[in-house]
Amino acid sequence: MNLSKLSRRAFKLAATSTIMALASGAAIADDNLTIGVVAKIGGIPWFNAMESGIEEKAEQLGVNGFMVGPTSADPALQVRAIEDMIAQGVDVIGVVPNDAQVLEPVLARAREQGIIVLTHESPDQQNVDWNFELASAQGFGEAYGERLAELMDGSGQYAVFVGGLSVPLHNAWADAAIAYIEDNHPDMSVVGDRYGVAEDVDASRRTALDLMRANDDLGGVLAFGSQGPIGAARAVAERRLSGDVVVLGPFSPGQGRRLLHDGVLSGGFMWNPKQAGEVFVTLGTLLANGETLESGMEIEGLGVIDPDVDSRNIIVDQLIEINSETVDELAALGL
Questions:
Q1: Residue 334 located in a structural domain
Q2: How many domains is the chain built from?
Q3: pLDDT for position 167
Q4: On the chain, which terminus has fewer CB atoms closer than 10 Å, C or N?
Q5: What is the mean pLDDT of residues 65-83?
Q6: Do residues 9 and 131 share a domain?
Q7: C-alpha–C-alpha distance, residues 29 and 8, integer Å
Q8: What mean pLDDT do residues 250-260 have?
């Protein structure tokens, strides 16, 4: 561990009462503490909301917090951003990985320098202090499998999009959704393999158009990745197949509400990406100040936690349903 960072952190240790006040959201000035977060991709509503959460919580807690959004969902760009943060000497690095395995070496280097590493949407990540999730993979995937089957009347073909074939959480959601459908709706089947396009709205649209051309009886698209539902819904609108092809998936309400109100996008479930940004800062500040996470501890944004020390996961379930009754209110919150 880097000795300068070790001594700096030792100097930052606060009394237990102060630490717990921070956990509950009270501000504590720590101008020297810097937290950098690397998003999957910059400039899209989901990660814009996350950036707002990072900046607002950092201001509240009196720390330095910022987000870097790569120009595409290329894991090499995330590696480069993390390397830059290591060179800057930040205290905490947060990442929403595009490829967990590609990031392992650079995250290991960060930890060797005494930098705390947090991830989100990457429950099997190696070389991490903690990964946190605002929804369990099993529950999230099964909720989508159940809803898709309901909207397709339990029969027909459907396609599955993920943000990338090497994005662990997206594929875990897909596994859970497919398994639920296979166990409960034998008249439903997956078209082809899953498609790693759901972090690119144009690629999702093109893939959906190709699938509808090749499969006249395609009845649904299940897209895990914030741009997948938007692109697939636009394709359905182009083909004038609204009502015939169901599109489900997590998306930013502000980006998708018109498609939902038009009946092209069928809705979905999500968690609040702004809240995830806040958790990066709250959790990073706690850990940088020497706090040990324990079962039963209450942390703002996560609630009461039961951290898995072996897997380094903190998983809670805080799903929000996106439908015609909730989408405008969610969009008004900047999501």
A1: no
A2: 2
A3: 87
A4: N
A5: 96
A6: yes
A7: 15
A8: 94
Assess if residue 327 is contained within a domain.
no
The structure tokens listed for 200 are 């690119």
- Residue 107 resides in a domain: yes
Q: Which of these, 121, 98, 168, 146, lies nearest to 268 by C-alpha position? A: 146
Determine the Cα–Cα distance for residues 141 and 99; give it in Å rounded to an integer: 20
Does position 12 have pLDDT exceeding 60, yes or no? no
Q: Which long-range contacts (C-beta less than 8 Å, at least 24 apart) are formed by 78-83?
A: 78/38, 78/40, 78/102, 78/103, 79/103, 79/106, 81/38, 82/38, 82/106, 82/107, 82/110, 83/109
Domain that holds residue 289: 3-135+272-320
d(CA 245, CA 44): 25
Instruction: Clarify whether residues 144 and 256 are in a common domain.
Output: yes
Using CA atoms, how far residue 243 sits from 133, 167, 190, 249, 321, in Å, is: 33, 30, 19, 16, 20
Please report which confidence band the pLDDT of residue 124 belongs to, taking 50, 70 and 90 as the band edges. Answer: confident
CATH code, domain with 207: 3.40.50.2300
Question: Mean pLDDT, to the nearest integer, of 235-264?
Answer: 96
Cβ atoms of 103 and 97 within 8 Å: the answer is yes
Paired sense of beta strands 320-322 and 268-270, if any: antiparallel
H or E element, residue 327: helix 327-332
User: What integer pLDDT is reported at residue 23 of this predicted model?
Assistant: 42
Q: Are residues 116 and 175 in the same domain?
A: no
Helix/strand/coil (H/E/C) assignment for every residue in 182-217: HHHCCCEEECCCCECCCCCHHHHHHHHHHHHHHCCC
Contact 294, 300 (CB under 8 A): no
Residue 3 has pLDDT above 60, yes or no: no
